[in-house]
Amino acid sequence: MSLTGLKIAVVDDEEMIRTLIGEILEEEGASVELFEGGNSAFEYLKNNQVSWVISDINMPDGNGLELVKKIREMDRLNKPQILLLCGMADEILSPRELGIKKIFKKPDEVEEIIDYILENT
User: Which fold has domain 7-119?
Assistant: First the structure.
C-alpha cells in the first residue's frame, strides 16, 4: 500500500521534524503541505481539503489543541482525520477526549505514523 492520492498537512514549529515527516510522507506517495504553526495551517484548511492533519501540540503560533478545536468547528462534511505529536505523549489527554485519532511521541514514531495512516485510510 501507499499514500498515493492522500493530501496531508504537517504542522510543527520545528523545521527539522516538519521536513522529515513531510519527506517520508512524500516518499510514500502523499501530497504534503507544511506549516510552521496552527494559525497558518488553519488559514489553509479553511479553503483546502486534506485527508489528514499531523500536528505538534506545543507551538507558539497556534498550538495543536487550538487547531483541533478550530477544525472540529468547521462547517464541512469531510473534515480531516487528526493525529497529534508531542514530546511526552503519555502525559496529556486521551485522543478520545480530544476528538482525534491518535497521539504520537515525536520524533521517535514517524514510521508508526505512516503505518497508522495506511491502516486507517
Answer: Rossmann fold (3.40.50)
Determine what percent of the chain falls in helix, strand and coil, rounding each to the nearest 5.
Answer: 40, 20, 40
Which stretches does DSSP call E strand in 12-101?
31-35, 52-56, 81-86
Would you say 19 and 45 are in contact if contact means Cβ atoms under 8 Å apart?
A: no
**Radius of gyration of the CA atoms of the chain, in A:** 13
pLDDT digits (tens, 9 = 90+) for 75-93: 877 899 999 988 765 555 6
- Contact (Cβ atoms closer than 8 angstroms) between residue 12 and residue 21: yes
| Distance set, CA 77 to CA 49, 70, 74 (Å) | 11, 14, 9
What predicted TM-score, i.e. pTM, was given to this entire model?
0.89
